[in-house]
Amino acid sequence: MNLQFPELMRTQPYVDGRWVQCGRSFAVNNPADGGKVADVGDADVPLAESALEAAAAAFPAWRDRTAAERCRLLHRWCELIVEHQEDLALIITTEQGKPLAEARAELANAWAFVEWFAEEGKRVYGETIPAPGTDRRIVVIRQPVGVVAALTPWNFPSSMITRKAAPALAVGCTFVLRPASATPLSALALAKLADMAGIPAGVFNVVPSSASQAIGRLFTESPRVAKFSFTGSTAVGRELMARCASTVKRVSLELGGNAPFLVFDDADLDAAVAGAMASKYRNAGQTCICANRFFVQRSVQDAFADRLAAAVKALKVGPGTAAGVDIGPLISTEALQDVDALVRQSVAAGATLVCGGRPHALGGTFYEPTILKGVSNDMPIAVNEIFGPVSPLIVFDTEAEAVQLANDTPYGLASYCYARDIGRIWRVAEGLEYGMVGINEAVLTNASAPFGGVKQSGLGREGSRYGLDEYLEIKYLCLGGMQQ
Ligand SMILES: NC(=O)c1ccc[n+]([C@@H]2O[C@H](COP(=O)([O-])OP(=O)(O)OC[C@H]3O[C@@H](n4cnc5c(N)ncnc54)[C@H](O)[C@@H]3O)[C@@H](O)[C@H]2O)c1
Ligand SMILES: O=C[C@H](O)CS(=O)(=O)O
After folding, report:
1. Phi (first) and psi of residue 397, to 5 degrees
2. pTM
3. Which ipTM did the prediction report?
4. Relative to the alpha carbon of 238, which ligand is closest?
5. What is 6-255+457-476's CATH superfamily?
6. What is the topology classification, in CATH, of domain 259-447?
């Protein structure tokens, strides 16, 4: 990898301000060609335990810094991320596969979280409450929870980390992260920049490891960990949440999705197609908020399908570093097989291929951008989180039917509605059982908004002032003896 600042290429765990040599390593490969990118130091449980100890030791001093001091350090971290964005984008694309333009967009979100929470950390307000008697005063203060342990996914190797670390550090928590084994280099580069920014030793620690289950048990069961924050699949999140019960930890979960994308007969179809492309095919469909099912009102089904097909057929598939590429590789062979199986099973169940529907001629883990029509809500492609570049089209007749079908899933993360009648928009937005609703807009992510899901898509919110609450405890002070 040809970096302008080679020091950003870090391959060892970062614990208590030191880069730790490990006896074992695991390979990080480029999904575009399967080639090895790096061998990364494989942190074991004792090293992860030492990271928790370092975070616990660093917590009192970090907590006791003023919010302004933490703000200044986070702003400096943000400045360094911006300054090194080209290198960081190349690291993302090399280890995860997304087109460079998307990697740059991810980084813009990553530093926006740092910038946003650097400022929000100065607004951790408390309150006084009118007391029931003149002998006392009631005061509420908010304090950092303590040591935070986090697990993050491979699909956004930078922004999923700062979306947690920035609010945690801003309020005075310390942080230990195990990133996904497929994409640890971005996390380690962020650690290098945090170190350069002057964030003290022990405050931000990164332990890449192939021992995901063992370290997951440590993070969820260690009494040193006050807060467990997880982003990943619902299946894994459910298991880890249960493990947190033994110590009654605070838990944040950002889990899987099955986003409905509703297109009504009064929609601006060009806007709906643009939104569909932006939502569905970003990161080759490997995002938690990708449109996963397209519900199209019968009278506009052909017009929408034809325009969508024209746009999908124009997508360029190739390595993320190649100019003009829209669709990069899927993260792994298993991921490719999973997507292809969902398509094949659904065609066998009666769906019709409009375009794509098979692994790409490029080979490797590239998959053809695909549209299926004649899909029903019970087909595998509609029931499962696809995590690939596939658009299933489902026809509906009435507004009530659309909302009922959209809600018929255990997931509740993102949803989308394209219509122009204001009464319809309000009725549908209020009826959708999801944490987020894009109304004539498909790009939801930004640091100022509360991102998160309901039902089995998660607990809590990340981003916005609500994202700060995940790392704070409320304390009630009762001041007695006030009677003269
Ligand atoms: N809601 C959100 O904000 C959001 C954002 C990104 C991804 N996701 C979801 O994440 C999933 C894709 O990411 P993924 O494949 O990395 O998910 P995953 O659940 O397989 O893994 C998530 C993280 O947990 C680790 N892990 C996996 N199994 C574990 C176990 N048994 N014990 C401890 N750790 C374990 C992984 O190594 C990774 O670091 C999708 O479902 C996607 O919707 C959700
Ligand atoms: O996978 C979904 C993540 O939340 C990243 S983003 O919000 O889609 O950028």
Report:
1. -110, -45
2. 0.98
3. 0.99
4. 1
5. Aldehyde Dehydrogenase; Chain A, domain 1 (3.40.605.10)
6. Aldehyde Dehydrogenase; Chain A, domain 2 (3.40.309)
